[in-house]
Amino acid sequence: MRFVLFVIDSGSNTATPGEGAAIDAFNERLTAGNHLILAAGIAEPNRATLIDNRNDLGAITPGTLFSGPEHYSGFWIINADSPEQAQAFAVDGSRACNRRVELRPFLV
């Protein structure tokens, strides 16, 4: 089963050296267990572009869908044997990056 863990932050690339080391160790544990598919940090919302081309609308707007100070600053895409295992990984990921995370399953 595949899941995405979104990191929730009020900035991007804000990890302290200790948090960075904990994130690296978490990534290594996921990799060692063949659970990590992809992990990445993403740019802050002011570098986003919202595109809506439904029905050839052609709307291209600088910015993000989200309002407020918090946004997704990174993500992990993982393989897990169960929703419970994915939740345990999310708990560990939240601890490692010292941020809240949002866990969502992939649709099949």
From TrEMBL:
Classification via InterPro entries: Dimeric_a/b-barrel
Name the record gives this protein: Unannotated protein
The species this protein was found in: freshwater metagenome
